[in-house]
Amino acid sequence: MKFDITLIFTVATVWAVLALAYALAPWSGMIGYAWVWGFGAALFLALGLALRRATRPYHDKEGPS
What we know:
The structure is a single chain. This protein has one domain. 83% of the residues lie in helices and 0% in strands. It contains 2 helices and no strands. α1 runs antiparallel to α2 (31-62).
C-alpha cells in the first residue's frame, strides 16, 4: 500500500509540473490547460493525503514495513 500512495504523490507532482509549464508558456491560450492540470494535481494530492491518513492506524499497529 505504501507504494500506491507514493505513486499517487508522484502523479500529483508530475501534474503540478505540467500545470506550471503550461502557465509559463508564452502562448496565452495555454492558461486554460494550466487550470486543468493544476486541478488534477490538487485532486491527486488530496487523494494521497487522504490515503496516507487512512492507513496511518494500520501502520502504527503493524509497525513499519
